[in-house]
Amino acid sequence: MTSPARPEVHRHLLPGVDPRIFALRVADEVDAFVVRTERFVALVDTLATPELCARALELIADETGGRPLLVVNTHADWDHVWGNAAVEGRAPIIGHRSAAARVRSARARDTWRDKRAADDRFDRVRLVAPTVTFDTSLTLDGGDLTLELLHTPGHTPDHIAVWIPQLRVCLAGDAAEDPLPELWEGDASSAAQLVASLELLRSLAPEQVLPSHGGTTDPALLDRNLGYFASLTGAYADAVRAGGPEFETVFPDSSGLSGPALAFYRACHRKAVRAAAAGRL
Ligand SMILES: [Zn+2]
Which fold has domain 9-235? Predict the structure, then answer.
Protein backbone atom coordinates (compact mmCIF):
# COMPACT_ATOMS: atom_id res chain seq x y z
CA MET A 1 0.00 0.00 0.00
CA THR A 2 1.21 3.48 -0.83
CA SER A 3 0.28 6.65 0.95
CA PRO A 4 -0.30 9.41 -1.64
CA ALA A 5 0.22 12.33 0.73
CA ARG A 6 3.74 12.49 2.14
CA PRO A 7 3.99 14.36 5.42
CA GLU A 8 6.14 17.47 5.36
CA VAL A 9 8.15 19.19 8.07
CA HIS A 10 7.87 22.90 8.83
CA ARG A 11 9.71 25.28 11.12
CA HIS A 12 7.30 26.26 13.83
CA LEU A 13 7.90 29.15 16.20
CA LEU A 14 6.43 28.59 19.64
CA PRO A 15 4.51 31.61 20.98
CA GLY A 16 6.06 32.95 24.15
CA VAL A 17 9.01 30.55 24.05
CA ASP A 18 12.57 31.87 23.86
CA PRO A 19 13.52 32.07 20.15
CA ARG A 20 16.58 29.88 20.75
CA ILE A 21 14.06 27.04 20.89
CA PHE A 22 11.68 26.18 18.07
CA ALA A 23 9.84 23.17 16.73
CA LEU A 24 10.22 21.21 13.52
CA ARG A 25 6.65 20.11 13.10
CA VAL A 26 5.21 17.25 11.08
CA ALA A 27 1.50 17.86 11.37
CA ASP A 28 -0.51 15.12 13.09
CA GLU A 29 2.69 13.11 13.64
CA VAL A 30 5.34 14.64 15.90
CA ASP A 31 7.36 17.72 16.82
CA ALA A 32 11.15 17.65 16.92
CA PHE A 33 12.85 20.59 18.62
CA VAL A 34 15.90 22.71 17.96
CA VAL A 35 17.83 24.37 20.79
CA ARG A 36 20.46 26.89 19.68
CA THR A 37 23.21 27.51 22.22
CA GLU A 38 26.49 29.43 22.06
CA ARG A 39 28.49 26.22 21.66
CA PHE A 40 26.26 23.87 19.69
CA VAL A 41 22.90 23.41 18.04
CA ALA A 42 20.89 20.52 19.48
CA LEU A 43 18.32 18.66 17.40
CA VAL A 44 15.98 16.86 19.78
CA ASP A 45 14.57 13.90 17.82
CA THR A 46 14.98 13.11 14.13
CA LEU A 47 11.35 12.60 12.98
CA ALA A 48 9.96 9.46 11.33
CA THR A 49 12.10 9.04 8.20
CA PRO A 50 15.58 10.01 6.96
CA GLU A 51 13.91 12.14 4.25
CA LEU A 52 12.03 14.20 6.84
CA CYS A 53 15.18 14.56 8.95
CA ALA A 54 17.25 15.62 5.91
CA ARG A 55 14.65 18.28 5.16
CA ALA A 56 14.74 19.37 8.80
CA LEU A 57 18.53 19.77 8.57
CA GLU A 58 18.05 22.01 5.52
CA LEU A 59 15.57 24.12 7.48
CA ILE A 60 18.06 24.67 10.32
CA ALA A 61 21.21 25.06 8.22
CA ASP A 62 21.22 28.81 8.88
CA GLU A 63 21.11 28.21 12.65
CA THR A 64 24.43 26.49 13.02
CA GLY A 65 26.82 29.33 12.18
CA GLY A 66 29.70 26.88 12.24
CA ARG A 67 28.63 25.38 15.55
CA PRO A 68 28.54 21.61 15.84
CA LEU A 69 25.28 19.72 15.68
CA LEU A 70 24.30 17.44 18.56
CA VAL A 71 21.37 15.06 18.22
CA VAL A 72 19.28 13.87 21.15
CA ASN A 73 16.85 10.94 20.94
CA THR A 74 14.08 11.30 23.53
CA HIS A 75 13.18 7.61 23.06
CA ALA A 76 13.31 4.94 20.38
CA ASP A 77 9.72 5.17 19.13
CA TRP A 78 9.48 5.24 15.33
CA ASP A 79 8.11 8.76 15.00
CA HIS A 80 10.99 10.18 17.07
CA VAL A 81 14.13 8.42 15.79
CA TRP A 82 13.62 6.77 12.44
CA GLY A 83 15.30 9.80 10.86
CA ASN A 84 18.57 8.94 12.62
CA ALA A 85 20.17 7.63 9.40
CA ALA A 86 20.20 11.22 8.08
CA VAL A 87 22.56 12.35 10.85
CA GLU A 88 24.63 9.17 11.18
CA GLY A 89 28.31 10.08 10.93
CA ARG A 90 27.50 13.81 10.96
CA ALA A 91 26.70 14.28 14.62
CA PRO A 92 26.78 12.35 17.87
CA ILE A 93 23.37 10.83 18.65
CA ILE A 94 22.75 10.97 22.40
CA GLY A 95 20.18 8.76 24.10
CA HIS A 96 19.49 6.52 27.04
CA ARG A 97 21.54 3.33 27.20
CA SER A 98 18.42 1.20 26.78
CA ALA A 99 17.41 3.15 23.64
CA ALA A 100 20.27 1.52 21.75
CA ALA A 101 18.94 -1.93 22.69
CA ARG A 102 15.40 -0.93 21.72
CA VAL A 103 16.53 0.30 18.27
CA ARG A 104 18.23 -3.04 17.65
CA SER A 105 15.38 -5.15 19.06
CA ALA A 106 13.19 -7.66 17.24
CA ARG A 107 10.21 -5.54 18.30
CA ALA A 108 11.66 -2.54 16.40
CA ARG A 109 12.25 -4.65 13.29
CA ASP A 110 8.65 -5.95 13.49
CA THR A 111 7.34 -2.39 13.73
CA TRP A 112 9.46 -1.39 10.74
CA ARG A 113 8.17 -4.31 8.68
CA ASP A 114 4.56 -3.39 9.53
CA LYS A 115 5.07 0.32 8.79
CA ARG A 116 6.75 -0.41 5.43
CA ALA A 117 3.92 -2.73 4.45
CA ALA A 118 1.45 0.06 5.13
CA ASP A 119 3.37 3.00 3.63
CA ASP A 120 6.39 3.08 1.29
CA ARG A 121 7.69 6.30 2.85
CA PHE A 122 9.36 4.02 5.40
CA ASP A 123 11.30 2.05 2.75
CA ARG A 124 14.53 3.96 3.29
CA VAL A 125 14.48 3.91 7.07
CA ARG A 126 17.50 2.29 8.67
CA LEU A 127 17.40 1.55 12.37
CA VAL A 128 20.31 3.61 13.73
CA ALA A 129 21.06 3.55 17.45
CA PRO A 130 22.40 6.37 19.65
CA THR A 131 26.19 6.66 19.65
CA VAL A 132 26.51 8.33 23.08
CA THR A 133 24.46 6.85 25.91
CA PHE A 134 23.88 7.41 29.62
CA ASP A 135 21.86 5.89 32.45
CA THR A 136 20.39 8.52 34.79
CA SER A 137 21.27 12.01 33.59
CA LEU A 138 23.65 13.83 31.30
CA THR A 139 24.41 17.56 31.15
CA LEU A 140 25.25 19.34 27.90
CA ASP A 141 26.84 22.72 28.63
CA GLY A 142 26.09 25.03 25.75
CA GLY A 143 27.44 28.14 27.48
CA ASP A 144 24.36 30.33 27.59
CA LEU A 145 22.01 27.35 27.91
CA THR A 146 22.38 24.00 29.64
CA LEU A 147 20.54 20.90 28.47
CA GLU A 148 19.98 18.45 31.29
CA LEU A 149 18.92 15.08 29.89
CA LEU A 150 16.86 13.19 32.48
CA HIS A 151 15.85 9.55 32.40
CA THR A 152 12.05 9.65 32.69
CA PRO A 153 10.73 6.12 32.02
CA GLY A 154 7.13 4.93 31.97
CA HIS A 155 6.05 5.88 28.45
CA THR A 156 8.99 3.75 27.35
CA PRO A 157 11.87 2.31 29.40
CA ASP A 158 14.42 4.45 27.52
CA HIS A 159 12.58 7.75 27.68
CA ILE A 160 14.47 10.94 28.48
CA ALA A 161 13.25 14.52 28.88
CA VAL A 162 15.29 17.70 28.39
CA TRP A 163 15.37 20.39 31.08
CA ILE A 164 16.78 23.81 30.24
CA PRO A 165 17.09 25.56 33.63
CA GLN A 166 18.05 29.03 32.36
CA LEU A 167 14.71 29.26 30.54
CA ARG A 168 12.72 26.97 32.86
CA VAL A 169 11.68 25.04 29.76
CA CYS A 170 11.02 21.29 29.75
CA LEU A 171 11.02 19.31 26.51
CA ALA A 172 8.84 16.51 27.82
CA GLY A 173 8.98 14.09 24.90
CA ASP A 174 6.09 11.67 25.29
CA ALA A 175 6.22 11.60 29.11
CA ALA A 176 3.49 14.25 29.09
CA GLU A 177 0.73 14.46 26.53
CA ASP A 178 -2.69 15.98 26.09
CA PRO A 179 -5.10 14.39 26.98
CA LEU A 180 -2.95 11.58 28.41
CA PRO A 181 0.46 9.97 27.89
CA GLU A 182 0.65 6.35 26.74
CA LEU A 183 2.06 3.77 29.14
CA TRP A 184 4.68 1.28 27.95
CA GLU A 185 2.59 -1.62 29.24
CA GLY A 186 -0.78 -1.80 31.00
CA ASP A 187 0.89 -2.82 34.22
CA ALA A 188 1.53 -1.28 37.59
CA SER A 189 5.25 -0.91 36.99
CA SER A 190 4.89 1.23 33.85
CA ALA A 191 2.28 3.39 35.57
CA ALA A 192 4.39 3.89 38.70
CA GLN A 193 7.38 4.83 36.55
CA LEU A 194 5.43 7.33 34.47
CA VAL A 195 3.86 8.95 37.54
CA ALA A 196 7.32 9.24 39.13
CA SER A 197 8.67 10.77 35.91
CA LEU A 198 5.82 13.31 35.76
CA GLU A 199 6.45 14.18 39.41
CA LEU A 200 10.16 14.64 38.72
CA LEU A 201 9.41 17.04 35.87
CA ARG A 202 6.85 18.92 37.96
CA SER A 203 9.37 19.26 40.80
CA LEU A 204 11.55 21.31 38.46
CA ALA A 205 8.78 23.95 38.38
CA PRO A 206 8.96 24.52 34.61
CA GLU A 207 7.37 27.65 33.20
CA GLN A 208 6.86 26.01 29.83
CA VAL A 209 6.36 22.33 29.02
CA LEU A 210 6.75 21.33 25.39
CA PRO A 211 5.56 17.77 24.69
CA SER A 212 6.35 16.08 21.38
CA HIS A 213 2.66 15.83 20.47
CA GLY A 214 -0.10 18.37 20.78
CA GLY A 215 1.69 21.66 20.36
CA THR A 216 1.04 23.04 23.83
CA THR A 217 3.49 24.91 26.07
CA ASP A 218 1.26 24.87 29.16
CA PRO A 219 3.13 23.72 32.31
CA ALA A 220 -0.20 22.68 33.84
CA LEU A 221 -0.12 19.72 31.45
CA LEU A 222 1.97 17.90 34.08
CA ASP A 223 -0.72 18.52 36.72
CA ARG A 224 -3.45 17.37 34.37
CA ASN A 225 -1.62 14.15 33.47
CA LEU A 226 -0.86 13.43 37.15
CA GLY A 227 -4.47 14.23 38.04
CA TYR A 228 -5.65 11.75 35.42
CA PHE A 229 -3.62 8.88 36.85
CA ALA A 230 -4.63 9.84 40.40
CA SER A 231 -8.30 9.82 39.38
CA LEU A 232 -8.09 6.18 38.30
CA THR A 233 -7.40 5.14 41.89
CA GLY A 234 -9.45 7.98 43.38
CA ALA A 235 -12.69 9.27 41.93
CA TYR A 236 -12.87 6.47 39.35
CA ALA A 237 -11.63 3.63 41.58
CA ASP A 238 -15.01 1.85 41.62
CA ALA A 239 -15.40 2.26 37.86
CA VAL A 240 -11.86 0.91 37.31
CA ARG A 241 -12.72 -2.19 39.35
CA ALA A 242 -15.76 -2.67 37.10
CA GLY A 243 -13.62 -2.42 33.93
CA GLY A 244 -14.35 1.23 33.11
CA PRO A 245 -14.67 4.20 33.04
CA GLU A 246 -15.14 5.12 29.38
CA PHE A 247 -12.63 7.51 27.82
CA GLU A 248 -15.41 10.03 27.12
CA THR A 249 -16.47 9.96 30.76
CA VAL A 250 -12.98 10.96 31.91
CA PHE A 251 -12.36 13.36 29.02
CA PRO A 252 -15.76 14.90 28.19
CA ASP A 253 -14.10 17.66 26.14
CA SER A 254 -12.54 15.23 23.65
CA SER A 255 -15.00 15.87 20.81
CA GLY A 256 -12.37 17.87 18.88
CA LEU A 257 -10.11 14.85 18.42
CA SER A 258 -9.86 13.33 14.95
CA GLY A 259 -11.00 9.74 14.46
CA PRO A 260 -7.50 8.22 14.54
CA ALA A 261 -6.49 10.35 17.53
CA LEU A 262 -9.63 9.36 19.40
CA ALA A 263 -8.97 5.67 18.72
CA PHE A 264 -5.36 6.08 19.87
CA TYR A 265 -6.20 7.87 23.13
CA ARG A 266 -9.05 5.45 23.89
CA ALA A 267 -6.50 2.63 23.63
CA CYS A 268 -4.06 4.56 25.86
CA HIS A 269 -6.85 5.04 28.39
CA ARG A 270 -7.75 1.33 28.40
CA LYS A 271 -4.09 0.52 29.02
CA ALA A 272 -4.01 2.97 31.95
CA VAL A 273 -7.21 1.44 33.37
CA ARG A 274 -5.60 -2.01 33.22
CA ALA A 275 -2.56 -0.59 35.03
CA ALA A 276 -4.76 1.01 37.68
CA ALA A 277 -6.69 -2.23 38.14
CA ALA A 278 -3.36 -3.95 38.75
CA GLY A 279 -3.43 -1.89 41.89
CA ARG A 280 -0.27 0.04 42.50
CA LEU A 281 -0.82 3.42 40.88
ZN1 LIG B 1 6.58 7.70 22.13
Answer: Metallo-beta-lactamase; Chain A (3.60.15)
